[in-house]
Amino acid sequence: MGVLVEVKYFNSFWLKKVCKLPDPVDAPILLPGWPGLPWNPSGYPKFPFGDSSTPGEWAPVGNQGDENAYQEPWFVEEMRIKGGFNNTPIDLGVKAYIVEERKNQERLSSSLIYSGVFNSRTGVNDTNVFSVGQDITKSVDPINGSIQKLYAEDTNLMIFQENKVQRALIDKDAVYTAEGSAMQTQSNVVIGQIVPYLGEYGISTNPESFAIYGFQKYFADRNRGCILRLSRDGLTEISRYGMVDYFRDELASISDDWLEVSILGSMGAGPTGWGDNWISVNDQNISCCDITIGSSVAFEDVNGNFIDSGLFVEEATEYNNGVDIVCAVKLSGVPDNKYYTVKFINNVKSQILGGWDIHNKSYVVSMQNVSKVHDNHSITPKIDGEAGDYSTVSFDESLNGWTSFHHYKPAFIGSLKNKYYSFYDGKLYEHYFNSNQDDNRGIYYDLDRAESSISFVFNPSPSVSKNFKTLAYEGSNGWEGEYFVSGYTGKDSLNTNWVQNQDKIGVVYSYEEGLYTDPRTGYPTRAGFDRKENLYTTNIIDTSTPRPGEVIITGMTGIKGYFATVKFKTDSTTDPGGMKELYSVSSEFVLSSY
């Protein structure tokens, strides 16, 4: 019986006769031509059907209206150059194929694969070559989660999984004896022996927290509520240096979920001459840095419902409308009406952003928590227990402790050539930059100036109940005491409520802000700190509500308790942006007779 055998010609050449029509089209003369690829230029009719620019179709050779003027293209099979006798034959070449048993896509989150080599000197670039004939994969224990980050250090490759940190040898492999000692190394491997670091720590799903300086690496393990340092002595939990409770609570609030963030604003026509797809967001409480590029746009209809417009934000910039500085937003298309209430919707995720501050030699970590209720979101720092959506703190290696809370919320941070930089709203900012006026301290990302503050705990003679009478400091002019409070004395019942009592005072004004004229004498006097030989002092007057049975001498008593907490901050009037120094803070106390 007969059988149909399919023959593939690997060295077939297609020759096709094409006629080129001169201008005008209806000219009687036809000129042959080779237009190149594609073979048949557009404009010829398709007869009897199909596209005449593809093999096997018909090509015109005569008048377009004459059916007999069409003939088949020519096909020639030839394996020798120029078709000459005994000329050089054309090799069939290599046919690359592989039998794939599992055609479905696989995601091996705990495995590594490497390509061929890249050599710029010889021009070899095999970075897109993954030969299945070689052992080019390396897997780690999948029980420790996915691989989140890789870092190459000298001859080791650092592998950060969700729940484990390991290192792999590069270009060598250690061979061990039965006793466990290294006998020799093999150099014919790319990724060699994988050795775990001691400790059940990982980088969770926050590789953005990684930072390095010298031989020390820093990162966050959200799953275990700690900040870690990887050094020559292994893994160290640096969050336990006075900040265990703080990081435990902050990291627990960071989620992997993508949340919908929306910003509401009234919308008007865009700037004149900017185009129909520009709109103006006229709310003064919304800045362009709040609107994320790529956010989808919904408009409010007459019934108060928000309807998805199918548009998204392409650009956001500020401009002067002649009265105020407002935000102009470029959309991906033209909105139907430019006077709706608009909602910009973006899906965001909380993050733990880390970086190295080379100026202060400290590790900076910014824990940015995205709240589910986030309309017209703020950029409020979480300091001293205040409400906010981010917290940026720094760890000083020389002091082995956490030294500062910061008022900026970066999108990316890092250091380069002895300078510390951060990104915000798509712009690059240099920190610790002193202008000619030297008055830019406390200003981040061109926003309002943030005051500097520092808190102290007075606890001399811990087991003795004290009466703090004065408050003093050595340093620059411009510091004020925001609060001075004692520790809680315990809960007491008040009808059906339970209250905690503590002594406190009001704000102690700075040397400049506390100056006023006494209405009785007409002489200048001070209500806050007074200065003598660069020592600023003030008496402490208790302003708290007297408790039952407490003897109060108005204007005389201080703060009573075993310990007291005081917070100093810079004022807003004394040399704004100038340097403020604070050397020491002290308080005079006596034994309490209460």
Report on this model:
About 11% of the residues have low confidence. The chain is mainly beta. It has a 6-stranded antiparallel β-barrel with strand order 21-22-25-24-23-26. Strands 11-12-13-16 form a 4-stranded antiparallel sheet, with no helix packed on it. The chain has 1 helix and 47 strands. Helices cover 2% and strands 40% of the residues. The protein has 5 domains: 87 residues, no CATH class; 90 residues, no CATH class; 152 residues, no CATH class; 79 residues, no CATH class; 139 residues. It is extended, with a radius of gyration of 38 Å. The longest helix has 9 residues.
**What integer value in Å does the Rg equal?**
38 Å
Total DSSP helices = 1
Strand order of the largest sheet: 21-22-25-24-23-26
- What number of structural domains do the residues give? 5
β-sheet strand percentage: 35-45%
Please tell me the overall pLDDT: 78
Fraction of helical residues: under 10%
The main pleated sheet reads as: 6 strands, antiparallel, barrel
Pick out the low-confidence regions: 16-22, 27-62, 67-75, 372-380, 383-387
The global form is extended
Number of strands: 47
* Cα end-to-end separation: 118 Å
SS class: mainly beta
Would you kindly provide a brief summary of this structure?
This protein has 594 residues and is an all-beta fold. Helices cover 2% and strands 40% of the residues. About 11% of the residues have low confidence.
Question: What is the strand and helix layout of this fold?
Answer:
Blueprint: E1 12-15, E2 19-20, E3 31-32, E4 59-60, E5 70-71, E6 74-77, E7 111-113, E8 118-119, E9 124-125, E10 137-139, E11 147-153, E12 156-161, E13 165-170, E14 173-176, E15 182-186, E16 191-196, E17 211-213, E18 216-221, E19 226-231, E20 234-237, H1 244-252, E21 258-269, E22 278-281, E23 296-300, E24 306-320, E25 325-331, E26 341-349, E27 351-357, E28 362-368, E29 390-396, E30 401-406, E31 412-416, E32 419-424, E33 427-430, E34 453-458, E35 466-468, E36 470-475, E37 479-486, E38 491-494, E39 497-500, E40 515-517, E41 524-526, E42 530-532, E43 535-539, E44 559-561, E45 564-570, E46 582-586, E47 589-591
Antiparallel strand pairs: 1-6, 2-3, 4-5, 7-10, 8-9, 11-12, 12-13, 13-16, 14-15, 17-18, 18-19, 19-20, 21-22, 21-26, 22-25, 23-24, 23-26, 24-25, 27-28, 28-29, 29-30, 31-32, 32-33, 34-45, 35-44, 35-47, 36-43, 36-46, 37-45, 38-39, 40-41, 42-43
